[in-house]
Amino acid sequence: MALIQTAVREQVGIITLDQPAKRNALSKSLIDEIVASLADFQARRLRAVVLRAQPGTKVWSAGHDVDELPASRRDPLGWDDPLRHLIREIETFPAPVIAMIEGSVWGGACETVFACDLIVAAPSATFAITPARLGVPYNIAGVLTFLNAASLRIGKEMAFTARPVSAERAERLGMINHVVPAEELEAFTFDLAATICDNAPLSIAVMKEQMRILAGAHPMSPQGFERVQGLRRVVYDSDDYQEGIRAFKDKRRPVFRGR
Ligand code: LCV
What we know:
This protein is an alpha/beta fold. Helix content is 48%, strand content 15%.
Protein backbone atom coordinates (compact mmCIF):
# COMPACT_ATOMS: atom_id res chain seq x y z
CA MET A 1 0.00 0.00 0.00
CA ALA A 2 1.44 3.38 -0.97
CA LEU A 3 2.35 5.54 1.99
CA ILE A 4 2.77 8.63 -0.19
CA GLN A 5 1.10 10.02 -3.30
CA THR A 6 3.24 11.55 -6.06
CA ALA A 7 2.42 13.77 -9.02
CA VAL A 8 4.15 16.05 -11.51
CA ARG A 9 2.74 19.47 -12.37
CA GLU A 10 4.73 21.00 -15.28
CA GLN A 11 8.30 21.02 -13.89
CA VAL A 12 7.35 20.51 -10.24
CA GLY A 13 7.36 17.15 -8.49
CA ILE A 14 4.81 16.72 -5.71
CA ILE A 15 5.11 14.28 -2.80
CA THR A 16 2.10 13.96 -0.47
CA LEU A 17 2.55 12.06 2.80
CA ASP A 18 -0.44 9.75 2.98
CA GLN A 19 -0.44 7.50 6.03
CA PRO A 20 -2.92 9.31 8.30
CA ALA A 21 -3.53 6.23 10.44
CA LYS A 22 0.00 6.58 11.77
CA ARG A 23 -0.01 10.39 11.50
CA ASN A 24 2.51 10.20 8.63
CA ALA A 25 5.18 8.87 11.01
CA LEU A 26 8.49 8.69 9.13
CA SER A 27 8.90 4.92 8.99
CA LYS A 28 11.59 3.28 6.85
CA SER A 29 8.91 2.22 4.35
CA LEU A 30 7.52 5.73 4.00
CA ILE A 31 11.00 7.24 3.73
CA ASP A 32 12.01 4.69 1.08
CA GLU A 33 9.03 5.83 -1.02
CA ILE A 34 10.00 9.49 -0.65
CA VAL A 35 13.62 8.77 -1.59
CA ALA A 36 12.55 6.73 -4.63
CA SER A 37 10.29 9.60 -5.75
CA LEU A 38 13.12 12.11 -5.39
CA ALA A 39 15.32 9.88 -7.55
CA ASP A 40 12.58 9.72 -10.19
CA PHE A 41 12.11 13.50 -10.09
CA GLN A 42 15.88 13.97 -10.49
CA ALA A 43 15.95 11.60 -13.47
CA ARG A 44 13.13 13.65 -15.00
CA ARG A 45 15.17 16.82 -14.32
CA LEU A 46 12.29 18.46 -12.48
CA ARG A 47 13.12 21.95 -11.25
CA ALA A 48 11.35 22.01 -7.88
CA VAL A 49 9.72 19.60 -5.43
CA VAL A 50 6.79 20.28 -3.11
CA LEU A 51 6.68 18.05 -0.01
CA ARG A 52 3.22 18.15 1.62
CA ALA A 53 0.64 16.14 3.52
CA GLN A 54 -3.04 15.56 2.73
CA PRO A 55 -4.98 18.82 2.39
CA GLY A 56 -6.52 19.92 5.71
CA THR A 57 -4.48 17.49 7.80
CA LYS A 58 -4.18 18.19 11.53
CA VAL A 59 -0.83 16.36 11.73
CA TRP A 60 1.65 16.94 8.90
CA SER A 61 3.95 14.26 10.37
CA ALA A 62 4.42 12.80 13.83
CA GLY A 63 8.16 12.45 13.22
CA HIS A 64 10.40 9.41 13.40
CA ASP A 65 8.45 6.16 13.69
CA VAL A 66 8.94 5.49 17.39
CA ASP A 67 8.26 1.79 16.81
CA GLU A 68 11.46 1.70 14.75
CA LEU A 69 13.69 3.23 17.40
CA PRO A 70 16.08 0.68 18.94
CA ALA A 71 15.02 -0.54 22.41
CA SER A 72 18.37 0.52 23.89
CA ARG A 73 22.15 0.25 23.70
CA ARG A 74 22.26 1.25 20.04
CA ASP A 75 22.51 4.72 18.55
CA PRO A 76 18.88 5.58 17.61
CA LEU A 77 19.91 8.13 14.98
CA GLY A 78 23.08 6.74 13.46
CA TRP A 79 24.29 7.47 9.93
CA ASP A 80 22.22 4.66 8.37
CA ASP A 81 18.98 5.54 10.14
CA PRO A 82 16.28 6.13 7.49
CA LEU A 83 15.62 9.64 8.84
CA ARG A 84 19.29 10.57 8.43
CA HIS A 85 19.17 9.23 4.86
CA LEU A 86 16.05 11.30 4.10
CA ILE A 87 17.66 14.48 5.42
CA ARG A 88 20.74 13.96 3.24
CA GLU A 89 18.61 13.21 0.15
CA ILE A 90 16.65 16.45 0.60
CA GLU A 91 19.80 18.50 1.22
CA THR A 92 21.59 17.12 -1.85
CA PHE A 93 18.61 17.07 -4.23
CA PRO A 94 19.78 19.33 -7.11
CA ALA A 95 16.70 21.57 -7.06
CA PRO A 96 14.75 23.40 -4.34
CA VAL A 97 12.53 21.27 -2.10
CA ILE A 98 9.63 23.33 -0.75
CA ALA A 99 7.86 22.12 2.40
CA MET A 100 4.15 23.02 2.32
CA ILE A 101 2.85 22.68 5.86
CA GLU A 102 -0.59 22.33 7.41
CA GLY A 103 -0.97 20.88 10.90
CA SER A 104 1.58 19.86 13.48
CA VAL A 105 5.14 18.78 12.73
CA TRP A 106 7.06 16.73 15.31
CA GLY A 107 10.64 15.73 16.02
CA GLY A 108 12.38 14.16 13.06
CA ALA A 109 9.68 15.56 10.78
CA CYS A 110 10.53 19.03 12.10
CA GLU A 111 14.14 18.43 11.12
CA THR A 112 12.99 17.13 7.72
CA VAL A 113 10.99 20.33 7.14
CA PHE A 114 13.89 22.49 8.32
CA ALA A 115 16.19 20.61 5.91
CA CYS A 116 13.93 21.69 3.03
CA ASP A 117 14.99 24.78 1.14
CA LEU A 118 11.80 26.80 1.57
CA ILE A 119 8.92 26.43 4.03
CA VAL A 120 5.41 27.75 3.35
CA ALA A 121 2.89 27.15 6.14
CA ALA A 122 -0.77 27.64 6.91
CA PRO A 123 -1.59 29.34 10.21
CA SER A 124 -2.49 25.90 11.63
CA ALA A 125 1.12 24.72 11.33
CA THR A 126 3.24 24.13 14.44
CA PHE A 127 6.82 22.92 14.79
CA ALA A 128 8.17 20.90 17.74
CA ILE A 129 11.64 19.57 18.53
CA THR A 130 10.87 16.53 20.68
CA PRO A 131 13.97 14.50 21.70
CA ALA A 132 13.65 15.69 25.31
CA ARG A 133 10.03 14.44 25.33
CA LEU A 134 11.22 10.92 24.47
CA GLY A 135 14.61 10.88 26.16
CA VAL A 136 16.41 10.61 22.80
CA PRO A 137 19.97 11.91 22.29
CA TYR A 138 19.60 13.73 19.00
CA ASN A 139 22.56 13.42 16.63
CA ILE A 140 24.97 16.27 15.95
CA ALA A 141 24.11 16.76 12.24
CA GLY A 142 20.45 16.97 13.25
CA VAL A 143 21.22 19.57 15.89
CA LEU A 144 23.01 21.58 13.20
CA THR A 145 19.90 21.37 10.98
CA PHE A 146 17.93 22.94 13.82
CA LEU A 147 20.58 25.60 14.44
CA ASN A 148 20.61 26.52 10.75
CA ALA A 149 16.86 27.12 11.04
CA ALA A 150 16.62 28.88 14.40
CA SER A 151 18.83 31.08 16.52
CA LEU A 152 20.75 29.38 19.33
CA ARG A 153 18.35 30.87 21.93
CA ILE A 154 15.23 29.70 20.08
CA GLY A 155 16.81 26.33 19.26
CA LYS A 156 17.53 25.80 22.97
CA GLU A 157 13.97 26.78 23.96
CA MET A 158 12.46 24.40 21.38
CA ALA A 159 14.82 21.54 22.31
CA PHE A 160 14.57 21.94 26.09
CA THR A 161 10.79 22.48 26.27
CA ALA A 162 9.73 20.28 23.29
CA ARG A 163 6.82 22.73 23.02
CA PRO A 164 5.36 23.39 19.53
CA VAL A 165 6.10 26.80 18.00
CA SER A 166 3.29 28.41 16.01
CA ALA A 167 3.60 29.23 12.32
CA GLU A 168 3.17 32.90 13.12
CA ARG A 169 6.04 32.89 15.62
CA ALA A 170 8.19 30.73 13.34
CA GLU A 171 7.76 33.22 10.50
CA ARG A 172 8.44 36.19 12.79
CA LEU A 173 11.67 34.49 13.86
CA GLY A 174 12.69 33.77 10.26
CA MET A 175 12.44 29.99 10.73
CA ILE A 176 9.95 29.66 7.86
CA ASN A 177 9.52 31.71 4.69
CA HIS A 178 5.78 32.45 4.55
CA VAL A 179 2.56 31.96 6.50
CA VAL A 180 -0.38 31.94 4.09
CA PRO A 181 -4.13 31.47 4.73
CA ALA A 182 -4.98 27.77 4.30
CA GLU A 183 -7.24 28.45 1.32
CA GLU A 184 -4.38 30.21 -0.49
CA LEU A 185 -1.57 27.86 0.59
CA GLU A 186 -1.52 25.62 -2.47
CA ALA A 187 -1.74 28.46 -5.04
CA PHE A 188 0.93 30.47 -3.22
CA THR A 189 3.31 27.49 -2.97
CA PHE A 190 2.95 26.49 -6.60
CA ASP A 191 3.37 30.10 -7.72
CA LEU A 192 6.65 30.17 -5.78
CA ALA A 193 7.67 26.89 -7.40
CA ALA A 194 6.76 28.19 -10.87
CA THR A 195 8.94 31.26 -10.33
CA ILE A 196 11.85 29.01 -9.40
CA CYS A 197 11.23 26.81 -12.45
CA ASP A 198 11.47 29.89 -14.71
CA ASN A 199 14.99 30.61 -13.46
CA ALA A 200 18.25 28.89 -14.44
CA PRO A 201 18.28 25.39 -12.92
CA LEU A 202 22.05 24.93 -13.07
CA SER A 203 22.66 28.23 -11.30
CA ILE A 204 20.08 27.34 -8.63
CA ALA A 205 21.55 23.85 -8.17
CA VAL A 206 25.07 25.15 -7.61
CA MET A 207 23.91 27.86 -5.18
CA LYS A 208 21.88 25.27 -3.24
CA GLU A 209 24.99 23.04 -2.99
CA GLN A 210 27.22 25.98 -2.01
CA MET A 211 24.78 26.94 0.78
CA ARG A 212 24.62 23.30 1.97
CA ILE A 213 28.42 23.09 2.18
CA LEU A 214 28.76 26.47 3.87
CA ALA A 215 25.89 25.83 6.32
CA GLY A 216 27.54 22.54 7.30
CA ALA A 217 31.05 23.97 7.53
CA HIS A 218 31.54 23.82 11.28
CA PRO A 219 34.99 22.91 12.62
CA MET A 220 34.80 20.06 15.12
CA SER A 221 37.90 18.36 16.49
CA PRO A 222 38.06 14.54 16.58
CA GLN A 223 38.16 14.89 20.37
CA GLY A 224 35.03 17.06 20.28
CA PHE A 225 33.19 14.54 18.11
CA GLU A 226 34.23 11.64 20.31
CA ARG A 227 33.09 13.55 23.40
CA VAL A 228 29.66 14.14 21.83
CA GLN A 229 29.33 10.48 20.83
CA GLY A 230 30.31 9.39 24.35
CA LEU A 231 27.70 11.71 25.89
CA ARG A 232 25.05 10.42 23.45
CA ARG A 233 25.84 6.82 24.37
CA VAL A 234 25.21 7.57 28.03
CA VAL A 235 21.75 8.82 27.00
CA TYR A 236 20.71 5.98 24.72
CA ASP A 237 22.04 3.46 27.28
CA SER A 238 20.00 5.16 30.04
CA ASP A 239 16.83 4.02 31.78
CA ASP A 240 15.30 7.36 30.76
CA TYR A 241 15.67 6.47 27.05
CA GLN A 242 13.82 3.22 27.59
CA GLU A 243 11.22 4.98 29.76
CA GLY A 244 10.58 7.57 27.03
CA ILE A 245 9.87 4.96 24.39
CA ARG A 246 7.89 2.71 26.74
CA ALA A 247 5.74 5.64 27.90
CA PHE A 248 5.01 6.58 24.28
CA LYS A 249 3.90 3.03 23.51
CA ASP A 250 1.87 2.87 26.77
CA LYS A 251 0.30 6.24 25.85
CA ARG A 252 1.23 7.76 29.20
CA ARG A 253 3.46 10.61 30.40
CA PRO A 254 7.06 9.49 30.92
CA VAL A 255 8.72 9.80 34.35
CA PHE A 256 12.38 10.68 33.80
CA ARG A 257 14.77 10.05 36.70
CA GLY A 258 18.02 11.30 35.17
CA ARG A 259 19.63 7.89 34.95
C1 LCV B 1 4.93 5.80 15.56
C2 LCV B 1 3.00 7.02 15.91
C3 LCV B 1 3.75 8.21 16.03
C4 LCV B 1 5.17 8.12 15.89
N1 LCV B 1 5.70 6.90 15.66
O1 LCV B 1 -3.17 10.59 17.27
O2 LCV B 1 13.01 14.06 17.48
S1 LCV B 1 13.07 12.87 18.24
O3 LCV B 1 14.37 12.60 18.83
O4 LCV B 1 12.00 12.82 19.24
C5 LCV B 1 12.75 11.57 17.09
C6 LCV B 1 13.25 10.28 17.55
C7 LCV B 1 11.32 11.59 16.74
O5 LCV B 1 10.91 12.16 15.74
O6 LCV B 1 10.46 10.89 17.61
C8 LCV B 1 9.03 11.06 17.36
C9 LCV B 1 8.63 12.41 17.92
N2 LCV B 1 7.16 12.55 17.75
C10 LCV B 1 6.33 12.88 18.74
O7 LCV B 1 6.71 13.06 19.89
C11 LCV B 1 4.86 12.95 18.37
C12 LCV B 1 4.22 11.64 18.81
N3 LCV B 1 2.81 11.61 18.43
C13 LCV B 1 1.89 12.37 19.11
O8 LCV B 1 2.17 13.14 20.02
C14 LCV B 1 0.47 12.23 18.63
O9 LCV B 1 0.34 11.02 17.87
C15 LCV B 1 0.05 13.41 17.72
C16 LCV B 1 -0.06 14.70 18.59
C17 LCV B 1 1.08 13.59 16.60
C18 LCV B 1 -1.32 13.08 17.10
O10 LCV B 1 -2.21 12.76 18.15
P1 LCV B 1 -3.59 12.04 17.78
O11 LCV B 1 -4.35 11.92 19.05
O12 LCV B 1 -4.21 12.69 16.61
P2 LCV B 1 -2.65 9.36 18.16
O13 LCV B 1 -1.66 9.79 19.15
O14 LCV B 1 -3.84 8.57 18.61
O15 LCV B 1 -1.85 8.50 17.07
C19 LCV B 1 -2.54 7.79 16.06
C20 LCV B 1 -1.70 6.56 15.80
O16 LCV B 1 -0.44 6.95 15.25
C21 LCV B 1 0.59 6.43 16.06
C22 LCV B 1 -0.01 6.27 17.43
O17 LCV B 1 0.73 5.33 18.16
C23 LCV B 1 -1.40 5.80 17.08
O18 LCV B 1 -1.32 4.42 16.75
P3 LCV B 1 -2.52 3.43 17.24
O19 LCV B 1 -3.74 3.91 16.51
O20 LCV B 1 -2.02 2.08 16.81
O21 LCV B 1 -2.61 3.59 18.74
N4 LCV B 1 1.72 7.37 16.08
C24 LCV B 1 1.65 8.69 16.31
N5 LCV B 1 2.88 9.23 16.29
N6 LCV B 1 5.97 9.19 15.96
N7 LCV B 1 3.57 5.81 15.67
